[in-house]
What we know:
mainly alpha; 2 strands; two-stranded antiparallel ribbon
Amino acid sequence: MSENKIVPVDRARKEGKPMAAEEKKVVSAEKKANYVIIKDEKGNEYKLEFNARVVKNMERNGFKVDTDYPYTMIEKLFTGAFQMHHRGVLPERIMEIWHFQSPKDKLLGVLTQLYMKPLEDLMDDEKAEEENENPTWETF
Length: 140
């Protein structure tokens, strides 16, 4: 009876026994994150996300996604991500947390995607298209 026992996938091939269903987390290329949770060196968690208020504030303070000053903009993007839920964290501490993060390039990509989400929401026509078949404006 124990010969037909289902074992974890990583051991099944070695033992020649039936495999347990392998659970895979598949993230669709279409699905975008709404926020990211990061941890600092002490294990404290921080929820990073952007809303329209934060994005407008960052733009007023000179943040640009496309820029000739990547060092400054990476700092501004990461510190800006704290504004929505962690406004009291000092910029020096935020940069200490940045230096603890890995892999930074992937985190930077996710943060850029999150930064663009309020703009995408602003430009979303889906609800308007459902309500109005024809454009609600015209040019002369």
